[in-house]
Amino acid sequence: MKQLLRQLPAVHELQKDSRFLELIKKHDTDGERFTDLIKEVLDKIRKQIVSDKWSGPEPGTNLFIDELFKLIDSSAKARFDYTLKRVINATGTILHTNLGRARLSENAVEHVVETARNYSNLEYKLKEGERGSRHSHVETLVKQVTGAEAAMVVNNNAAAVYLIMSALAKNKEVIVSRGQLVEIGGSFRISSIMEESGAHLVEVGTTNKTHLYDYEDAITENTAMILKVHTSNFKIYGFSKTVETNELAQLSGKHDQVIFYEDLGSGVLYDFTRHGIGEEPVVGEVLKMGADIVSFSGDKMLGGPQAGIIAGKKELIDNLKKHQLARVVRVDKMTLAALEGTLMDYLRGEQGFFNIPTLRDLLVPADELKGRSKRFAQEINSFEGELKAVVTEGTSQVGGGTMPDVQLPTYLVSVSHPEVSAEHIARKLRTEHSPAIVVRIQKEEVNIDLRTVTVEEERILLDAFKLI
Q1: Is residue 207 within 8 Å of 179, Cβ to Cβ?
Q2: Burial of 28 from C-beta contacts in 10 A (0-12 / 13-18 / 19+)
Q3: What is the pTM of this model?
Q4: Nearest C-alpha neighbor of 16 from the set 67, 70, 63, 69
Q5: CA 223/CA 305 separation, integer angstroms
Q6: Which residue stretches of 271-365 are H helix?
Q7: Greater confidence, 322 or 185?
Q8: Nearest alpha-carbon partner for 100 in 355, 266, 300, 269
Q9: How far apart are CA 35 and CA 14, in angstroms?
């Protein structure tokens, strides 16, 4: 063991090797950091020799030096490689939370790049030559697409709930139905967020039934708000009853001090019911029915970046903008650029809607998916080897905690191999290919749902299957 340790090369000797400079250039780093990396690799080998776990070539040989530089290269790649990577989503789940939810439109992406690469008028009025507000960039667009009097943006919808409660109902009562005390992703609960804000939660009704009189009976002189939470991530069927938006708006209107706030969750700006998809309330319609203020997510059904959008009466929004928490939960220039690009597509009407991947993927005709799937399967079946692909009918999910009861008709390309398991194929696509490919596994078959795969990505998928 001591002999092997003595034969380990000195760092200054490795620095003389031509591969040292080649790897520095390859990984775009400097000599000092790369030297530290070499020391770390040598230290790992030293520990493996001491613990009798080293299985590579014997130190002191040319083979060892070759292996050492391979290990250094591999270690440098791991050190300087991004952990946030591009993934091809072949699952058919449109708003796949684990895969980043909504893909941005090309207009939004271009606007983000332009804003990130250059200085911008983030908080500057070009005409007046004076300080401006970052809220102004998307407020006009939100007002135009929702009909709201005013609007602002925070970093997510949970932050929107927290800000609204803290600014408008702290130390006062907020009435909410027990059936709407939802838990969102990561075990965060609406009730807990409300309590953290300092608002006093007043629960009314039961899990499955809440009546208008439950709200009426709960109103006191200390009531600041009636809250309606859209249960976008679950549905209650059967013996159930909820109070409609217009009824709660009328009730709050009878009490000057009571605000009616509706947390819409997923934030729909396009009426999907026109296509028989879901029952999600459209933001503009909720405001027309009398909600004083609403909030919703930017990266779900809206199809934009992660954000919490607050819209409603100007007096209330102005109070929120001036609150100290507004700075805590504010968004950066890239989020604003992405949201502005997305909302601009909505402003264009039908022509712009299909620039947004979320809307496009939701509304793609089943016949189009069938044709693409058949062509995709034919190509796989033309490969040399034993991969077999067949097209079957299936369903896609919306995902992202939205439209839980909606199953979108789709066509699946089911791929199998007589000697290779579906799990092995899926792992290979996920871990040995760049970009990584995520698929579904059902009945020992790899299922590809092209609903969430672009035409350009199809070729990448086919090339990956050739390597199976």
Answers
A1: yes
A2: exposed
A3: 0.89
A4: 69
A5: 34
A6: 283-288, 314-322, 325-328, 333-347, 350-353, 357-363
A7: 322
A8: 300
A9: 9
